Amino acid sequence: MGKNLLQGKRGIIFGALNENSIAWQVALKCVEEGASIVLTNAPVAAKIGQTEALATQLNAPLIYADVTKMEDMENLVSESVAKLGGKLDFVLHSVGMSLNVRKKVPYTELNYDWMHTTIDISAISFHRLMQVLWKQDAVNEWGSVLALTYIAAQRVFPDYSEMADAKSMLESIARSFGYHFGKRNHVRVNTISQSPTYTTAGSGVGGFDAFFNYSNTMSPLGNASSETCADYCISLFSDYTKMVTMQNLFHDGGFSSTGIAQDLMESFASEAGK
User: Fold this and answer.
1) Is 1 within the bounds of a domain?
2) Residue 139, burial from CB neighbour count under 10 angstroms (0-12, 13-18, 19+)
3) Which of 15, 39, 178, 186 could disulfide-pair with 23, CB 3.0 to 4.6 Å?
């Protein structure tokens, strides 16, 4: 049962491709907590995802939009405000894609055309979204904009490749636009750095299974699930976090603050003794 934390609020959720998506869980939680939402995804998701089924389940409008096209973003925001009956209170940007990662191209040999696409989809789209929200004055006072990121923006994870560069830019955009949105509308802008999660995008990273297990062992609380990440998003959409902005917030069971786990030390010691 929800606690009506978002009662009467309106928002847009990007990227709910299937039930493994963090955005899917966020959409479910938003409606459970009393919000009205619009779902959006790339046009290709109509063929490969289940977003339409979720839209039907939640009785939520679904507006397809290519995040690399300004006109699509402008239409998405204006149509969302019209369909929801007023300005937005929250937005979740859960968007990321890398052909270099999908095709396992080493970081030292990146295809730069693909890299440009990665950065456009995974980072610049966030600036494009907020510029549209800004120009259309589409967010209510004390609204909340979130984007999902990963700790590879700060530390090296070789198989994450140029997605790390894109996430680093994403976090910088959140801080920079967060300043301007905060000054003008008291809108807060944050990023959430989530544990490795078995999403369509996450599980496409090379060696993901091994790293998931490593992170789970390193983290004192274990890896955070998509469901608990959705709960965290709800708290940041709610009125209980009005003064939190321009932050990169780690939701990772303590992984980001742990140097080494005793379990791993014992495992390494055991291997060394063989």
Assistant:
1) no
2) buried
3) 15
The letter for the amino acid at 179 is Y
Q: Would residue 160 show up in a list of annotated catalytic residues for this protein?
A: yes
Residue 63 lies in a domain: yes
Query: From CA 80, how far away is CA 63, in angstroms rounded?
Result: 8
Residue 215 belongs to domain spanning:
10-272
Q: Position of tokens 């966020």?
A: 26
Residue whose C-alpha is closest to residue 54's, from 30, 86, 80, 84 = 30
Which residue matches tokens 């090379």? 206
How confident is the model over 156-170, as pLDDT tens digits? 988 899 999 999 999
Q: In 3D, which of 21, 197, 176 has the Cα closest to residue 93?
A: 21
Q: Is 150 a catalytic residue?
A: yes
pLDDT of residue 200: 64
Residue 2 belongs to some domain of the structure: no
In terms of phi and psi (left: phi > 0; alpha: psi -120 to 50; beta: otherwise), the region of 232 is: alpha
Q: How far apart are CA 93 and CA 138, in angstroms?
A: 15
Does residue 3 belong to any structural domain of this protein?
Answer: no
Which residues are CB-contacts of 76 (< 8 A; sequence separation ≥ 6)?
12, 38, 40, 63, 65, 132
Which entry of 150, 198, 232, 240 is annotated as an active-site residue?
150
* Unique residue bearing structure tokens 């140029």: 162
Domain count, the chain: 1
Beta strands in 96-179 (DSSP E): 139-149
Strand 248-251 to 88-93 pairing: unpaired
Catalytic-role residue among 107, 112, 160, 198: 160
Tokens of 103: 């095709």
* pTM score over 0.90: yes
